[in-house]
Amino acid sequence: MKAVVQRVLEASVTVDGQRVSEMGPGLLVLLGVGKGDTDADMTWMVEKLATLRIFEDADGKMNLSLEDTSKHLIVVSQFTLYGDARKGRRPSFIDAMEPVAAKALYERTCAALRQRGLTVGTGIFAADMKVALVNDGPVTLLLESPPKAAAPA
Predict the structure, then answer these.
(1) Buried-most residue among 13, 58, 72, 143 (CB within 10 A)?
(2) pLDDT tens-digit series, residues 22-38
(3) Quick one: 55 exposed, middle or buried, by C-beta within 10 A (0-12, 13-18, 19+)?
C-alpha cells in the first residue's frame, strides 16, 4: 500500500457537487492499493497512520499522533499512486490492484481505523472526486508498506 499523508487544518471531498466528507484539523490520506497487497499491509498502514507523530506538542515539536489529537482523517482511494511514468508519456497503472479487490481492502482499512476510535471520512471509490485542503506546515509524507519477503528458493 502507498499513501500520501498530509497534515491539514481542514479538508473536504465533493462528488457531483455534493460534499461527501469534510473535517477540520487532522490528516488527509490519499491511499493506493497495489497488486499483492494483503491485510498485513493494511494492518501496517493503519498502525502507522494512527500513531505517526506529526502533530506539534505545546513546545512546537512533532511529538503527537492522530490518536493524541483530533482523531479526524479523510481517506481517499487513489489508484494513481501506482502510476508508473518512467517510460513514455502516459502512466501505466499495471501495478494497481484490480478495482473489486482494491475497494474491499480500502474499505477494510477505513473500518480498521474506525475501530481504533478515529473519525474517518471517505470519498466515493472510483468516483470523480474534488479534494480540497489547507495543508498545515506544510507537512506531507509518503508512506509505503514494507516489501514482502521473497519466497525461499
Answers:
(1) 13
(2) 999 999 999 999 999 99
(3) buried
Any catalytic annotation for residue 79? yes
Q: Is 78 a catalytic residue?
A: yes
CB-CB neighbours of 120 under 10 Å: 22
Q: Point out the catalytic residue in the list 6, 18, 55, 78.
A: 78
Its pTM stands at: 0.93
Active-site position among 6, 79, 109, 122 = 79
pLDDT digits (tens, 9 = 90+) for 120-147: 999 999 999 999 999 999 999 999 998 7
**Known catalytic residue at 38:** no
Nearest to 80 by CA among 93, 67, 69, 62: 93
Look up residue 9 and give its amino acid: L
